[in-house]
Amino acid sequence: MRVLAAMSGGVDSAVAAARAVAAGHDVVGVHLALSAKPGTLRTGSRGCCTVEDAHDARRAADILGIPFYVWDFAERFTEDVIEDFVAEYAAGRTPNPCLKCNERIKFEALLDKALALGFDAVCTGHYARLEDGVLRRSADAAKDQSYVLASLTPEQLRHAMFPVGDSTKDAIRAEAAERGLAVADKPDSYDICFIPDGDTKAFLESRIGAKPGRLVDAETGAVLGAHTGVHGFTVGQRHGLGIDRPAADGRPRYVLSLEPVDGTVKVGPAERLGVGEIIADRVIWPNGKPLAGVVECVAQVRAHGGTSPATAEVRDGALVVRPSAALRGVAPGQAVVLYREDAGGDVVLGSATIRSTVAAAT
Q1: Is 49 an annotated catalytic residue?
Q2: pLDDT (tens digit, 9 = 90+) per residue, 111-149?
Q3: Known binding-site residue numbers
Q4: pLDDT at 206 over 90
Q5: Which residues carry a binding-site annotation for ATP?
Q6: Of 69, 145, 228, 342, which alpha carbon lies 20 to 30 A from 63's?
Q7: What CATH number has the domain spanning 274-359?
Q8: Choice among 48, 49, 101, 123 that is catalytic
Q9: Strands 295-300 and 307-315: what pairing?
């Protein structure tokens, strides 16, 4: 097959490309330039998509003996990922930019271009497994990225390759060293690559502006303080609330809900964070098989953690999920991903964007 290897400059994508070469595929490496000003993105272990990363990707391609190109996707990334991120926070929702990047950049824009150029598949360094078109969790549970890939369609997955998904991170680093790849010990990237200093609140405020509102006690209705915009908060947040006095019972408060229209941020005790039902739309079935009736499954609401056995069904076009154990900190805008319970919870059934939640009975 002709394979386009997306090379981020990290160890995972370098080994993925190497494995594609070793499997006998005709491989071409490509690095995606996602910023018009790459010097503003973080370097080292704090981010990705930097000039340093592009150089690292090119060196890895040279060692593998494959052609290498840099493709400018900065405008598309800005429109589909950064602007979406800002708009979602302004609307009081909590988006996942990595999920959006996979969906709209790597497996839409990049894949479309690859197919137009005659490639058969796009290869990435994601930790997930594809078996007969079925998306599964990776062998390394701590690094699993199936959650941020669960919004891909069957057609997109048909042209995807995840060569490192059956290995642990330690094994990938060891293999990179054996292959002479300089990125073998390169630290993993963390946080949001397009926020240079890691200050998400300041980044959002620079684009949205200040929109003052009130912090309100959800139980008493008392006004506890003021803030400069709901974009500075997310459901489940505890720190940085700006409340100048403790609760009457001395317990910490958490963000329970956001009202972007009037700027109200409601806070309350941890037990009020429990969610007994999730309603989600924009449902995607990566394996092409919608749920039939009520299905027992495992629901996940965050990239790492936030899982519970659950039942799920499609009702009036929306996905309704009822966790067996009340999940906390479930925010509109996040994705809920379902895994098949009878397969050890590692087969992805579907994905949807959380629209609203219903509090768990107390």
Answers
A1: no
A2: 999 999 999 999 999 999 999 889 999 999 999 999 999
A3: 6-13, 32, 125
A4: yes
A5: 6-13, 32, 125
A6: 145
A7: 2.40.30.10
A8: 101
A9: antiparallel
